[in-house]
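Hi there,

I know you've been waiting on this one. I reran it after we fixed the sequence typo, so this is the corrected version. Both the input and the resulting structure follow.
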Amino acid sequence: MPVALGSEILMAGSEAGRPALFATDGSSVRLVRSFAAYGGPGTLVRLGERVAFILSQGLTGPVELWITDGTTGGTQSLQTLASIEAMIRWRDRVWFVARSSSTSSPAEVWSSDGTTTGTGLYAPLVAPAVFPGLFATQDRLFALTVHDLLLFDGQSPVP
């Protein structure tokens, strides 16, 4: 889904048969970056003056968390994980449910401030394997599983 960034809209597409990220101001379209990955970019989430997104390496390959400021030079990979199942912005970070080592490893809540050093594991999850999503209010982050609704305050990793 496209996302607004400044006076432009960022959106996924393809360029010469490769997945790509484009920007448009409504009168012209420009290529931000193309990728060698199998699929992506997907799940674009605005984070201040940048946009975080997921880039897939295929159905069984790893997934990468990327950040862009809408320029080629300002588009970079932050973290490679086995899977990312949900991603939202809450407060000043992007939060997501991921599996770090394999698609069957335990699910974890991760967060990122848009930098490599500011991206990391927030809390392991002891819950069923399926996570329909993350949701947030002003004060709380919720992880909805098939059987549970977990509540986080952003400070303590204990739900």
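Quick highlight: The radius of gyration is 16 Å.

Best,
R. S.
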